[in-house]
Prior knowledge:
Layout: H1 6-17, E1 20-23, H2 24-32, H3 36-43, H4 45-57, E2 65-68, H5 77-86, E3 90-93, H6 96-103, H7 117-135, E4 138-141, H8 147-164
Parallel strand pairs: 1-2, 3-4
Amino acid sequence: MMGAGKSSVGRCLHRQIGVTFLETDDLVISNLGMSIRQIFSTHGEQKFREVETEALQTISKTKRAIIITGGGIVLRRENIEILRRLGAIVWLDGDEQALFARASRRTDRPLLQTKRPREAFSRIFAARRPLYARIADIRVDTSVLTEEEIAVAILTKLKRLRRKARPGSSISAKT
């Protein structure tokens, strides 16, 4: 969900473990040559979601990576299937009020560019939260933790998940 700290935590994990760091939003921006805000205003959310799926499809499983996705990636079943193939799915959850406070600090969030951003956020949060819960291998509440604490929690939970995994399974350090 927007405001959960995905990018910040991803960069922190990258510094700690040194694996490749990818953000699907950056791939979309690179593919279309414009900001997310421009993509939404020029082409609409549907086009953004299409290019987001294309970007996700380009990520190879052969290379360990921290993959940061936009919060709406869960809206397409195809994306969920791709993410499952790539590795463990980490859900950075949080209290709705805390997430909104963080998300509303930035002015480049197209889905919050409405007359009532708080209501828009609540609708999005309510619609997506069950999807995140359904697909996540790991959940970390980011409401009151620092980026470093969140990164440590993720790494600890990934280790536990690997130990529980059957021999030959493909759980990796991807988020």
